[in-house]
Amino acid sequence: LQAGGLVAVPTDTVYGVACLAQDSAAVRSIYSLKGRNGAKPLAICVGDVERLYRYCHVNVPDELLRDLLPGPVTLVLQRSEELNKDLNPFTSLVGVRIPDHPFMRDLARACPGPLALTSANLSSQGSTLTVLEFQDLWPQLSLVVDGGPIGDIQSPECRLGSTVVDLSVSGKFSIIRPGCALTSTVEILKKKYGLVPESS
């Protein structure tokens, strides 16, 4: 990662491809690897809730963050000046992941800054739950970390990826991608914190 490489990693939802978010060349490599539209943002991944404050402006209680993270949820918040300007330059927001996966948390803690994280698949193709499912990407990766099958390979729900929720507007939330943890996430946001869904 420190040499600018792209690494395939297991997470708590699907396989991902990670690079150092502060390395602009590596971020460009992720887009070309996936054949991804440059206007589609990448999430960042950190190891602990405390580290999220450095890269985001948070306008929800710390307890709310800790109720959802680590877990299969991506929280979309206002980005801070600390974050690489070349990462998602077209938006003032950034999605943050803290996967509930010991390897990923250790890896994120060992890195000097956040990881940029995206699913290990070509854009518009299905998410992957084993390393063999994305072997067409292997030649362009510096390393593939095989954490074994993730979840239930037979279950379509397992391939949904994380639930993506925008918390950038005070007192409100909007679901950007339902993902695999929609019901529990919405329940926490509404019942415990009284946030209201933003009318789309």
TrEMBL record:
Its EC number is 2.7.7.87. Its main location: membrane. Cytoplasmic and mitochondrial threonylcarbamoyl-AMP synthase required for the formation of a threonylcarbamoyl group on adenosine at position 37 (t(6)A37) in tRNAs that read codons beginning with adenine. Catalyzes the conversion of L-threonine, HCO(3)(-)/CO(2) and ATP to give threonylcarbamoyl-AMP (TC-AMP) as the acyladenylate intermediate, with the release of diphosphate. Participates in t(6)A37 formation in cytoplasmic and mitochondrial tRNAs. May regulate the activity of some transporters. It is an enzyme of class 2 (transferase). One of its GO terms (molecular function) is L-threonylcarbamoyladenylate synthase. It is found in: Cell membrane; Cytoplasm; Mitochondrion. It comes from Sitta europaea (Eurasian nuthatch). Interacts with RSC1A1. One of its GO terms (cellular component) is mitochondrion. One of its GO terms (biological process) is regulation of translational fidelity. Gene3D superfamilies: DHBP synthase (3.90.870.10). This is Threonylcarbamoyl-AMP synthase. Transmembrane segments: none annotated.
